[in-house]
Structures are given as structure tokens and as C-alpha cells.
């Protein structure tokens, strides 16, 4: 699967500069659709594979921007993968204060005033030869003892601070089962841990879903 993402060629554009431009535009541009390939996939430690449409639906339903209006994301350490010139890695640290109520898919979490700092986590994007992002990996924690979110990074750090205590880690059989039940019987408007099978692009070959164990183990 990851061999496919090397595209058997070299980029005709500056992948490092494009990644920095993409990251800088997040939160500042209303519509980022122009960045993404039609067969885009996002994967995190316990979410995904997810299409862009489902990802946007989750973001809108979580209500995190209203709950954390002062969210600041620190980006640093951009570097190209020496084994894939189309892939760029970088780090993020999130800081925010829970000053607004969070309405997350019908569940209400009143503002607590708590200040949040996540541990540093690794992100990466893979561009296709046309300069569109085809794969995005998010939220892999570097040091779970850093910050004040009990090792939870990015969006999961925000949810934890607001009071949504999710025991979510890769390979957690209980959390994985909860995800599967929600995927099978949950409402279309209740958010998704991964996209429907028919919507996942065919290049994504891993059978692992959400918090499932990584299949090669």
C-alpha cells in the first residue's frame, strides 16, 4: 500500500513548500477542497480510514472550535521522507482554553475554563504527482507523558479537556468494539470512526479500522 504512494517517480513541485503552505492555510481558509485528491484518505491512531467528506462531517459535529475559540497549533520540524519524496512529516503541539460550551453530536459539555496543552504529535501528508494530497496521517503521539491531556493529542486532547473521557488507544479491544457497534448501528449524523467500505478508495488495502490492531502483527 505504501509502495503505491511512492508513485514510481519524482515530484515536479516542491513537496516541502507545498506542505508548509497547506498547513499554514488550515484555519485561515474556509475551503481547503482544492488541496485534496478525489481518492484522499485520512488515518490516525484510532480513527480512519476516512474520506474527506466524512472528516468534514465529524469536524462540524464535534463543536470543538466553538468550545476552544483560542486554539493555537504550533507546527515545526518539516522534513521529507528519505524513502518517499512525495511524503512530508511534521510535528504539532496544540494549546487552547475551554471557554465555550461544547455540543458534540447532541452531547453537551459546559465550559470549564481549563487550559490545555497536548503532547507533541507527528503528522504527515503524501501528495500525488498532480500536487494533490492523497493521504494524511495524523496525531501519532511522540511522548505521552508531556502536556496535560493524559497523552491524548490533537482533537482527542480537546475532547478530553472538555470532559469526554475516551480510553482510546490502538489495539484497545473494548474501544474497538464500541467503535464497531457505533459504525454498524449509529446514526448517520452521529459522526464516524471510519468511512463506509464502499466509500474507501481502493488503493487503501489495510483491513484495520479505527482502533483495531495493526494487521501485520
From TrEMBL:
<feature type="region of interest" description="Disordered">
    <location>
        <begin position="188"/>
        <end position="217"/>
    </location>
</feature>
<protein>
    <submittedName>
        <fullName>Uncharacterized protein</fullName>
    </submittedName>
</protein>
<dbReference type="InterPro" id="IPR032710">
    <property type="entry name" value="NTF2-like_dom_sf"/>
</dbReference>
Amino acid at each position: 500500500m505504501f509502495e503505491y504512494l511512492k508513485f514510481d517517480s519524482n515530484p515536479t513541485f516542491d513537496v516541502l513548500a507545498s506542505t508548509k503552505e497547506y498547513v499554514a492555510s488550515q484555519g485561515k481558509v474556509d475551503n481547503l477542497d482544492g488541496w485534496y485528491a478525489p481518492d484522499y484518505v485520512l488515518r490516525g491512531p484510532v480513527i480512519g480510514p476516512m474520506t474527506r467528506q466524512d472528516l468534514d462531517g465529524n469536524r462540524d459535529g464535534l463543536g470543538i472550535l466553538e468550545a476552544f475559540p483560542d486554539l493555537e497549533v504550533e507546527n515545526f520540524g518539516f522534513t521529507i521522507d528519505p524513502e518517499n519524496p512525495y511524503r512530508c512529516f511534521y510535528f504539532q503541539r496544540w494549546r487552547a482554553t475551554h471557554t465555550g460550551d461544547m455540543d458534540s453530536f447532541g452531547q453537551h459539555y459546559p465550559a470549564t475554563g481549563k487550559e490545555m496543552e497536548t503532547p507533541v504529535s507527528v503528522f504527515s501528508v503524501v501528495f500525488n504527482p498532480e500536487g494533490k494530497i492523497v493521504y494524511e496521517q495524523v496525531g501519532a503521539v511522540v511522548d505521552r507523558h508531556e502536556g496535560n491531556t493524559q497523552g491524548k493529542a490533537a482533537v482527542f486532547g480537546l475532547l478530553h479537556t472538555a470532559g469526554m473521557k475516551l480510553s482510546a488507544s490502538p489495539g484497545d479491544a473494548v474501544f474497538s468494539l464500541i467503535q464497531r457497534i457505533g459504525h454498524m448501528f449509529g446514526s448517520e449524523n452521529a459522526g464516524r470512526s471510519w468511512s463506509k467500505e464502499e466509500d474507501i478508495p481502493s488503493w487503501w488495502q489495510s483491513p484495520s479500522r479505527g482502533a483495531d490492531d495493526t494487521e501485520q502483527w
